[in-house]
Amino acid sequence: MTPGHLTFPDNFLWGTATSPTQVEGHVANEWTDYIAADGGHCRVACNHYHRYEEDVEWMAQLGVNAYRMGIEWSRLQAAPFAPLNQKELERYIHLLDCLKAANITPMVVLHHFSNPRWITSAGGWVNPATVPAFVDYTAKLVSALKERVHLWNTFNEPDTYASLTYLLGGFPPFHKWQLASYRKVIKHMAEAHIRASEAIRRAGHGGRSPEIGIAKNWTYFGALKKFALWDHLLARLSHHTFNRFVLTEFLGGRRREASTFLGVNYYGLARFKNLQPAVPAGGACPKQLGRMGVVCDDMFERHPDGLGVILRDFHRRYGLPLYITEHGAASSDESFRIRDLTEHLRELRNALNGGADVRGFFYWSLLDNFEWQFGYTKKFGLVSVDFNDEALPRRMTRVGEYYRGICRARAPGMASQNSHPAIS
Ligand code: FCB
After folding, report:
1. What pLDDT was estimated at residue 409?
2. pLDDT by residue (tens digit) across 345-360?
3. DSSP letters of 269-294?
4. How far is CA 21 from CA 69, 193, 214, in A?
5. Closest Cα to residue 376, out of 69, 44, 112, 110?
């Protein structure tokens, strides 16, 4: 290996990711009646529910060998402890079979910001009864899919979910400053993760031992001005509440044994100015931020170096294999997005060089999609979707072409060619 070049392991997963509420359409969960800031809703979204075969073809064109997909709980169980809905299960099985035929390994997410309505109406994740209901669902789903899936991701970003539902009022049920509820949600999810992990192991497997983990969103917090004491304090408090507390609940002490990997969703940095996060996702104007020297996409401040730092830190701290379960940038400036990807992959490569055991990278997202509170305004797709056209036409983006170059160069069996010039 020459300095500056890294041979990615042959079995490294180069993937992309979506979530059911954001792409499928035709869901009946707490998001169905939600109207986003742009007036959009998720009732059709990308219509991936009906068009998944075509979307797998887009993945094949991209050359990815992995796909992080969600399975929507509300489709599969009509009541607590009910048997799984066979028709909906068959649809997911068909999707998994299409992926297999395209040589794409699935990582299945069990909870991504949405719940069946019977969970929500009973108090959601604040209610301890949600834990056994989720474990029952997991056990049934895993025994149905264990021949086809070995990568299980129980919870996507418990910190984002619990904070937007109970602290910041952004997600249904829109509560604010209910710190006790926030903590309860995290504790219940952590307990559910541990019990779901036991259920997954108990279910046995169809060849490959299951891998089990969560996707932790990692945001760095800071202050925009050096001497803004309150902003610094708020940054420390945020770090403690959203990062440390959550990781301790899921991975502290013997709890770590429930996970065989740790997923990291990484978008960057949020710095406070006058106690407000100075990021576009918090309402700040990107142009104004630009004038202050803050480099951001349409959501967060970029901080590529931070990716290497956190990968090395997680590797040392937890000793678990890592996956970058989400990274991407939202912008209509594709050159910016390509630069952003290159910079983050360079950091990934350095972390691997330094010994961090990272097994895969999932670009967020396969498609432009329904970005929760922001609706359809944030363009994250490798493949764009025209939401102004009822036919929802897909189109390969330049970022997608660039990513295809990376995936193809690193495809198994092409190990000798797998140093991509763009990130060397
Ligand atoms: C992550 C979410 C994902 C998407 C991206 C932009 O926090 O997991 O659903 O919204 O951010």
Report:
1. 84
2. 999 999 999 999 999 9
3. EEEEETTEE-SGGGT--HHHHHHTT-
4. 11, 21, 18
5. 44
Exposure of 411 in the CB half-sphere (CA atoms within 13 A): 15
DSSP string, 108-133: EEEESS--BHHHHTTTGGGSTTHHHH
The answer to whether the bond into 173 is cis (omega within 30° of 0) is yes
Q: What is the mean pLDDT of residues 215-239?
A: 98
CA dist 207 and 150 (Å) reads: 9
Choice among 30, 72, 157, 211 that is catalytic: 157
Query: According to the model, what pLDDT value does residue 205 have?
Result: 83
Atom number in ligand 1 closest to CA 330 = 6
Quote the mean pLDDT of the chain: 94
Q: What is the CA angle 32-397-372, rounded to 5? A: 20
The alpha carbon torsion through 250, 255, 260, 263 (nearest 10 deg) reads 10
Count of residues in the chain = 424
Band (pLDDT 50/70/90 cuts) for residue 295 is: very high
The mean pLDDT of 319-329, rounded to a whole number, is 98
Structure tokens, 30: 């707490």
Confidence of residue 7 (pLDDT cuts 50, 70, 90): low
For residue 302, the one-letter residue type is R
Percent of the chain with pLDDT over 70: 95
The yes-or-no answer on residue 157 being catalytic is yes
Q: How many Å apart are CA 69 and CA 48, to the nearest integer?
A: 11
Which of 31, 107, 264, 265 for mutating ligand 1's site (highest number of atoms within 8 Å of CB)?
Answer: 265
Calpha distance 259→257 (Å, rounded): 5
How far separated are the first and last CA of the chain, in Å rounded? 12
